[in-house]
Amino acid sequence: MLLHILPMCHCRVRVAIQLTDVKIPELGLTLREGRELRTGQPYGNKDVLVATARKEKVDQNGILIETDLPVREFTVETRWAINALRLFTHKACYILADQELEATSSDPLMWTGDEQWQGRWPARVPKNSPAALRPRLEIGQNGPKPKGLDPFLMPTLERDRILRKLGGSLPKAAFRA
User: Fold this and answer.
1) What backbone torsions phi and psi does residue 161 show, to the nearest 5 degrees?
2) d(CA 35, CA 50)
């Protein structure tokens, strides 16, 4: 299965934020800042930080993970360092709504339909803004808080949809788990 995930931090105050690592215990996968990952800013809003593969030349919209393990539910633990002094862990549970196709994405923009792809939005997920739904650590005046849906229910998708839909803003290579 191909997983497209967006470990994310939205910082609403002026502090230095640095990705430390991303773990998916169910897959036995740990990706570290400076080795496999780096902190990216793929959106126009530079307050939103996303884990990006270190080898990518431009900031990408998340990371790809390829696994042969059966996946129905998994946890993503993302650690962020704030001002290089405090470490915060954001933990989010992801649940697949079905087992029909061979890939999935935590980006709700991927779930919508168009001329090429049928919409795959799960009936149990509210049709809110994708930015409001995505699991993320949000840092504001009152400190860090988890935001978004948790658990995060997401549909399976066609592999080609993930590899082509957003074109150049998707990672080019997947991590193996």
Assistant:
1) -60, -45
2) 16
Q: What Å distances lie between residue 18 and 10, 39, 41, 81, 177, CA to CA?
A: 12, 6, 12, 5, 24
Beta carbons of 52 and 170 less than 8 angstroms apart? no
Separation of alpha carbons 105 and 62, rounded Å: 10
In a domain, residue 92? The reply is: yes
pLDDT digits (tens, 9 = 90+) for 132-143: 899 999 999 888
Residues in a beta bridge with 144: 139
174 occurs within a structural domain: no
Specify the DSSP class assigned to residue 116.
S
Print the domain residue range for 93.
2-166
Give the pTM. Answer: 0.90
Q: Is residue 60 part of a domain?
A: yes
DSSP sequence for 20-61: EEEEEGGGTEEEEBTTTEEEE--SS-TTEEEEEETT-SS--S
175 assigned to some structural domain: no
C-alpha distances in angstroms, 2 versus 17, 132, 141? Answer: 28, 24, 37
**Number of independent structural domains in the chain:** 1
What pLDDT digit, counting tens, does each position of 79-137 carry? 999 888 899 999 999 999 999 999 999 999 899 888 889 999 999 898 888 888 999 99
